[in-house]
Structure formats: structure tokens, C-alpha cells
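Quiz preparation item.
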């Protein structure tokens, strides 16, 4: 169940389950502009409300003054485009990362959850939303601390502590802020990330997939377009969903053409930020601000559905069920790992849950091995990789269900490369 952390002072903060997938690829910090003459830049300041476990505390004057000054500095920032990453955590419960792209004040957010819970509503990770979080918590029990950027005023850190409430303590940290006011406009590592994303798509593009492609002007100027595309068994079908699809035809809505559009916008000097799928590489969300003039901004969004991955999850579940039902007591097999310059072989004999393992080719054992060469452990790894959005290409034994060949590609996975299981011998006496 997804739970939102409210900004109502009468409600206590709660966390909600994430509904968006991704991995965050944030741009680097840009140089800030000089503050206007009527805004005094101060060093990052913090203020604390004294702890009170039962009775809400009144806000100390310094907290209100620091917040008001930060809000004024942010107001002077105006409707320029910007992007940043927010790291959030609830001690003992969860940690999340959100990447926010704001095009002339219109914010979009992509989140990745790193536990079973994720943090905030879409509005709460915007700069005004973070200001509201500080306001809504400053007159409650416990403590609230905040620091602010000395030039632009956005919150750098927010920390709330209230040990009397189960999820009353949490923290947020903003990093990698960059804006269209940076001089000169920079794209940081966009070129490198775009090249890596193209390579990932060329490598892992699934054979069967569907997606909704949208080019959406920020201010609703009727020059955007949308397409619904499906590619199955080598045949592509497409249907226009809205807008000027005569100008933005099916060719513009392809994944390679979307990469080209990002590269072309950057080459024209547009301020741009993009989030790419961490495994398949395709652009998920792109914000484009061509000039400092208002009203010429747009979003490129791709909502992707990997039919191969969905089929893979179903095949994995069915194979695991066959293995759980038909797994013999005594059996042996040869396990081989190839990838990352390694070629490891294990000869494994199983008696119930007890494994007797012989190695060859310098393969590590015990704690030195990233993954124990056990079929049950491999099933757990594959389930985790798919649950986290990784790529698995696997075949399974038709009778027993064990994986016969597996290819894995996933950020942070214990194993990347190919695993084969062959020469399976069942001890009939077992």
C-alpha cells in the first residue's frame, strides 16, 4: 500500500510504497549565479526546536527567520529550469533516492526505492514542497533542523527527530543541484550517460516490448504528440494517442530517434536533463529548455513495458514451482560461470541441503564466492534481479525446472554474465 507523508501539521508523517521504477542518473553540480542585490547570501544555517515528547513546541525565531530568508532567495531564482537529487531515509525502515527535473517551475520526479518502503508524494520533493515539510513540522513535538543553499535558498538538508513516534524521525539531503542559470550552461556528464544508455539499449533491447511515447510542451502549446507502440515477433504496430502526429511521426517515436533528439537538443545549446533506464538504457524522462525565454520547454516521456521481462518472470515462477515440487534428494551437476573475465567451474553433489563442492579453474569458494553454486541460491538471485528491474535471459529444464542457462545484467547484482548448469545426474537411491 502506498502511503504519503502529509504536510498537515495535525497529521504525523507516514511513508508510502513506491510506484515508480528507476535508477537515478543525476547531473553534476553547476556554478550558482550571484544573488541579487536585495538578497543577502548567508552561510548554510540550521535551527533546532527543543525536544518535547508530549507537547508541541513553538518555533524558535531563528528557524522562522532562516526559512523566510531561504524562501525569499528561492523566489528570486524565479522559474528557471533545474534538477537535483534527494536522498531520504527513515532510520531502520527505508532509504530512497528521487531525481527531480523542474522545467520553468513545472516539476517531474523519478524515484528508486531501496527497501520495501519509499518516501514522498510527488509534490513533497519539489523545493516548495520541502519548504512546506519544514513549516508543517516546526510546531510539533520533537525537533526539526534545516540548512539552506546560501545563494538560491533551496533546502540542503532536513532532519526531523521524534522518538515518540515510530516513523517520526526522517532526513532528506539535496545534492547535485544544477540549473539553467549556470554560466555557461553545462550538460555535465550527459554525453557519457547518453553513450552508455545507447550501448545498453543496443545490447539488451528486448525482442518483444510496448511503450507510450509522449512529447509534451510544458505550457500546453498544441505542438506535442503521443504514440502507443507495440513490437512483437518482429512486427511493429503503432497508434497515435494525441497531438500533432503528422509532424512527430512514428519515426520520431522510436527509441533510437529519442536518443538522437536528446543529442540534437544538447548540441543546439538547450538546457537538458535526462533519466535513463538503468538496465535497458532507454530514456524514461527528459526535460528540455531550449532558451532562457519562458514557454518553450518540453518533456519527453517513455513509459516502457518489457514483454520479455514479464514473460521471463512468469517462466521463472513456473520453473521454480517445478523445481520445488520435483527436486530430487541426491543429485549432482556441473556449474559454470562466464563473465567479467572469469571462467569458473564447480562440480556440485547435493544430498538434501548439504552440498559437496569441488572447484576448478581457480574458482573461489565459501565467502570468497559472490554466489554459492547451488540451484536454490540461483533461483533466489534471479527473483531478486527481476524484482529490481534487472535483465535475465534464462532457459529451464522442462521436467525438473532448474535453470540450464542464465544470462544476467543488473546494476549491483552479485553475478553478471552467463551461468550454465549441465551434466545433471540424479541418484536413484536418493
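Solution:
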Amino acid at each position: 500500500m502506498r502511503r504519503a507523508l502529509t504536510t498537515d501539521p495535525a497529521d504525523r508523517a507516514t511513508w508510502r510504497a513506491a510506484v515508480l521504477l528507476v535508477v537515478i542518473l543525476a547531473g553534476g553540480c553547476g556554478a550558482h549565479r550571484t544573488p541579487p542585490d536585495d538578497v543577502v547570501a548567508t552561510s548554510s544555517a540550521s535551527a533546532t526546536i527543543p525536544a518535547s515528547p508530549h507537547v508541541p513546541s513553538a518555533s524558535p525565531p531563528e528557524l522562522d527567520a532562516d526559512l523566510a530568508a531561504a524562501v525569499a532567495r528561492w523566489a528570486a531564482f524565479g522559474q528557471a529550469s533545474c534538477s537535483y537529487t534527494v536522498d531520504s531515509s527513515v532510520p531502520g525502515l527505508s532509504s530512497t533516492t528521487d531525481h527531480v527535473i523542474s522545467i520553468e517551475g513545472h516539476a517531474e520526479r523519478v524515484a528508486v526505492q531501496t527497501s520495501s518502503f519509499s518516501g514522498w508524494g510527488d509534490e513533497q520533493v519539489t523545493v516548495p514542497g520541502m519548504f512546506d515539510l519544514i513549516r508543517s513540522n516546526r510546531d510539533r513535538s520533537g525537533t526539526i533542523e534545516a540548512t539552506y543553499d546560501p545563494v538560491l535558498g533551496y533546502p540542503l538538508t532536513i532532519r526531523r527527530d521524534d522518538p515518540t513516534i515510530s516513523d517520526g524521525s526522517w532526513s532528506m539531503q539535496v545534492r547535485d543541484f544544477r540549473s539553467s542559470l549556470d554560466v555557461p550552461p553545462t550538460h555535465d556528464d550527459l554525453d557519457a550517460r547518453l553513450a552508455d544508455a545507447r550501448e545498453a539499449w543496443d545490447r539488451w533491447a528486448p525482442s518483444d516490448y510496448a511503450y507510450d511515447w509522449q512529447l509534451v510542451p510544458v505550457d500546453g502549446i498544441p505542438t506535442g504528440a503521443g504514440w502507443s507502440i507495440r513490437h512483437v515477433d518482429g512486427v511493429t504496430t503503432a497508434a497515435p494517442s494525441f497531438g500533432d502526429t503528422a509532424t512527430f511521426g512514428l519515426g520520431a517515436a522510436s527509441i533510437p530517434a529519442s536518443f538522437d533528439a536528446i543529442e540534437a537538443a544538447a548540441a543546439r545549446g538547450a538546457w537538458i536533463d535526462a533519466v535513463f533506464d538503468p538496465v535497458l538504457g532507454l530514456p524514461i524522462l527528459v526535460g528540455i529548455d531550449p532558451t532562457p525565454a519562458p514557454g518553450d520547454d518540453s518533456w519527453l516521456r517513455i513509459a516502457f513495458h518489457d514483454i520479455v521481462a514479464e514473460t521471463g518472470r512468469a517462466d521463472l515462477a513456473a520453473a521454480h514451482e517445478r523445481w520445488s515440487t520435483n527436486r530430487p534428494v541426491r543429485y549432482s551437476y556441473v556449474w559454470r560461470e562466464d563473465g567479467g573475465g572469469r571462467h569458473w567451474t564447480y562440480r556440485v553433489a547435493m544430498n538434501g541441503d548439504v552440498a559437496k563442492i569441488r572447484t576448478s579453474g581457480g574458482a573461489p569458494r565459501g565467502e570468497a564466492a559472490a554466489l554459492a553454486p547451488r540451484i536454490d541460491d540461483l533461483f533466489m538471485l534471479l527473483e531478486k534481479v527481476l524484482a529490481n528491474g534487472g535483465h535475465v535471459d534464462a532457459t529451464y529444464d522442462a521436467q525438473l525446472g532448474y535453470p540450464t542457462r542464465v544470462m544476467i545484467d543488473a546494476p549491483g547484482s552479485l553475478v553478471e554474465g552467463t551461468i550454465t548448469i549441465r551434466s545433471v545426474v540424479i541418484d536413484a537411491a536418493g
